[in-house]
Specification:
The chain is mainly alpha-helical and 346 residues long. It folds into 3 domains: 12-43, no CATH class; 76-213, no CATH class; 217-322, Single alpha-helices involved in coiled-coils or other helix-helix interfaces (Up-down Bundle). 71% of the residues lie in helices and 2% in strands. It has 11 helices and 2 strands. It has helices spanning 12-25, 29-43, 74-98, 106-133, 147-177, 187-201, 203-212, 218-231, 237-253, 259-286, 290-337, and strands spanning 59-61, 67-69. It has a two-stranded antiparallel ribbon. β1 and β2 form a beta hairpin. The radius of gyration is 27 Å and the shape is elongated.
């Protein structure tokens, strides 16, 4: 069944309240209106009430039998971001295919360039970033991040999707109604599309803040506390220096650890370090064998540092791959515009 556009105006406060309620229910305004229209058309009445009351949390059980709350904060966020990416692609495709060749002028040429190249490339970059975000390699990592920043990212993308839907409902009819050869009247649409392009650029820094947000998360705080407690009575200067470096590594990269590795770090690895530090403290008090115990401590510190550093390197490589994709998209865009030469057609 073909989809059609339905445009109507509502009070700004009503719209804002409904957007918030839909967000709390994990659905878009479009989905809410579709549900409403389907039910009304089928039952010939308004038969239901939609509320934003939180659903009861189902407990899950650890192997030890301890009851925990179900960690379900990521699934609705993933569904929301995937849905918004789909809405953005749909609107850009509609705008792209509707741009006529018969309308000329600088504004229309810029609109054509934005819809056919620039916005499509940037939206594709956002889609890739969202796909990478929820890829299997990040399982066990995301829940240690600040999910409010991910909500901020989603809100920004939702605002872009809404603006594109509005443009789809206004710019397309305006282009269809414009006589061939006309050149004026499209400057406001050009400015709005250029603003959308800038807002798409603004999403990447938010995602960067999200990836950095877990450095001081619960796991990192617990590890740093244990390291500092074990290090407090140590007197050997070079061991204390090594432990300070390890503390800094935990602060920077603990959030990048894959779930199983993080569990092993907080379990067996850290336990061994604590025991070696205890023996060093004992040797320092007794006045014999401290150098040998200190060397053993340094070896344990080196193992933990390597585990954490490798995780940080993987995260940097992921960021570099994402940046490389963005640069490649920029190169294609510049070549299509004719701003640079020597590149083949994309």
């Amino acid at each position: 069944m073909a989809a059609v556009m339905v445009n109507f105006r509502i009070d700004e406060e009503v719209k804002k309240n409904m957007e918030q309620a839909c967000k709390e229910m994990g659905m878009s305004m479009t989905a809410a209106f579709t549900v409403f229209a389907t039910k009304v058309g089928k039952e010939k009445r308004i038969p239901f009430e939609i509320t934003a009351a939180p659903a009861p949390v189902s407990p899950v059980r650890r192997r030890s039998g301890e009851l925990l709350e179900e960690a379900d904060g990521l699934a609705p966020r993933q569904a929301r971001l995937e849905g918004l990416c789909g809405q953005v692609r749909q609107s850009l495709t509609a705008l792209h295919t509707a741009v006529p060749a018969s309308i000329t002028g600088l504004s229309m040429e810029h609109i054509r360039l934005l819809c056919q190249d620039e916005l499509k490339d940037k939206a594709a970059g956002v889609s890739r970033a969202c796909k990478d975000l929820f890829s299997p390699r990040n399982a066990g990592v995301l829940e240690r991040k600040d999910l409010t920043i991910l909500d901020e990212y989603g809100d920004g993308l939702a605002s872009i999707a809404e603006e594109l839907r509005d443009l789809e409902g206004s710019l397309i009819p305006a282009m269809r109604a414009c006589p061939a050869g006309e050149v004026g009247g499209f400057e406001p649409y050009e400015r709005r599309l250029a603003e959308v392009s800038q807002r798409l650029d603004g999403l990447a820094p938010i995602l960067g803040r999200f990836w950095a947000s877990a450095a001081c998360g619960t796991g990192a705080r617990a590890v740093r506390t244990r390291i500092r407690q074990a290090a407090a009575p140590v007197e050997t200067p070079y061991v204390r220096t090594a432990l300070e470096g390890l503390d800094a590594l935990v602060l920077r990269h603990q959030g990048a650890l894959e779930g199983k590795t993080a569990s092993r770090l907080e379990g067996e690895y850290l336990n061994v370090l604590e025991r070696t530090l205890e023996e060093l403290v004992q040797a320092e008090r007794e006045g014999s064998g401290a150098a040998e115990k200190a060397a053993l401590c340094l070896r344990a510190v080196n193992v933990l540092s390597q585990v954490i550093s490798d995780a940080g390197q993987l995260q940097r490589e992921w960021s570099q791959r994402s940046l490389e994709a963005e640069v490649e998209a920029l190169e294609r865009l510049a070549a299509m515009r004719g701003d640079i030469g020597g590149m083949g057609e994309a």
